[in-house]
Each structure stands twice: as C-alpha cells, then as structure tokens.
Amino acid sequence: MINTIKKYIKQHVSGWAVQDRGVVEAYDIWAENYDAQPGNLMLDFDAILFAKLMRNIELANKVVADIGCGTGRHWPQIFDQSPLVLTGFDVSPGMLNQLKQKYPEANTHVITDNYFTEIEDHVYDVILSTLTVAHIENIEEALEAWCRILKQKGEIIITDFHPDALASGGKRTFRHKNIHIAVENYVHKIDTIKDILLSKGFYIFAEEEKRVDETVKHYYQQQNALHVYDKFKDFPIIYGLHFRRA
C-alpha cells in the first residue's frame, strides 16, 4: 500500500500523470512529434557530441548501419560524407515510418531481437548508435551481434543518456496529450560497454561527455523544472564513445 501511495504521489502531485511504457510502444507514440522538439536538452547535447565524434571518422564509400536510427535525425550529417550504403535499424515501426517520409528510398529494418539474424557476418564498415543503448536489456548479447555484422576493421560510435543520471532517477520522458510518458531504460555502466568491446579487439579512439551546468539551466527554466536542474547539477547527462577495431 505504501509503495502504491508513493507511486501515485510521484505520478500526480506535479500536475502531470506519468506512465511508464515499453520502448516500442513509447516510440511509436512519440514518432509523430519526435522531430518537433525545440529546446530538448538531450537531443541538443546528442547533436553536439555526435558532431564531435564524426570529425574523426570517414564514411565516404563505406557501408554504414545506424542502429536506433529513429526518424533519421543524423542522416543529413551522415549523407554529407557520401556513404556507399546507409541502413537504418529501429525497434519502432512508427519511427521508421517517419524516416521513410523524409527518405522514401531508405534501407530500413525493424529490430525484433538482439541477434540481427537476417544480417550476414562482416557487412558494415561503421555502426552508429545514438541514444539507444540504455533501451537494450541484454547489452552484451546486442554488442556481440554488432561485432559479428561489423567488418574486421570496423568502427562503432555510441552516444547515450549517462548511466549515472539514469541510476539517480533520470528518465527519458515526453508529453502526449495530458500525460508524461517515461520510456523504459536499463542502466549499463560505461565500463561494461568498454569491457565488452575491448574484449572483441576494439580500442577506444575517443570519449566525450556533457554535464548539467549553468550553461543549460535555461532548458529547465523553460520547462518549469528547476527542481530537476538542482537535482542533477554537475551530473554527467550524456556520453559518447568512438571505438575502432585494429
């Protein structure tokens, strides 16, 4: 009973009901408005980190997989480098439908498990995955599959919500009608991701992170969420990793 009361207070005292949803259901709902999010701190931080990490990678004439591609937020920047082939993977058909509206000829696959069984070994030169890893429950299983479909001298770029923020109560939420929807997340330590990929012959070429500080306080002010800013001030909120396999 106490836990039920606590949950009710957490969900309703703020004036907005909060509902936890699975990844597929949440992103299918979010898809329609995902590209129209001015002032979204995570998306803005992700754009900054992704641009930094992309400075040290060459995609021209490469076969590229974007795992967790969503609506193709980063595809203009990827296409600027003239990849030979770009394929988008996502668990959400709704997000892929939005991507297809922008890129009707896009190669896309709906992810149904961690194994990518329909993909042969050593197909891709580069795997890009942004704001996705924490949505995967069995991260070791997934990363092993990524290694399998990647060529021997392949590269991986990952960005995501920092596990320290998730472990401290941070959530990926969005508004839909009169509710806040929180997307299901799993906390994977950065060292866990590093250890898995290092054991597969990769090395860390670059590592980045962004923290909540005074420069982003206005994001929280605009959302009337200064209490969240105070809670997470000085916390790392997003990280980026660039792996290469020798």
Please tag this protein with its features.
single chain, 246 residues, alpha/beta, seven-stranded mixed sheet, 10 helices, disordered N terminus
Plain-language structure description:
With about 250 residues, the protein is of the alpha/beta class. It is built from ten helices and ten strands. It has a single domain, classed as Vaccinia Virus protein VP39 (Rossmann fold), CATH 3.40.50. α4 links the parallel β2 and β3 (about 85-90). It is globular and about 50 Å long. The N and C termini lie far apart (about 55 Å). This is Methyltransferase family protein. GO terms for molecular function: S-adenosylmethionine-dependent methyltransferase activity.
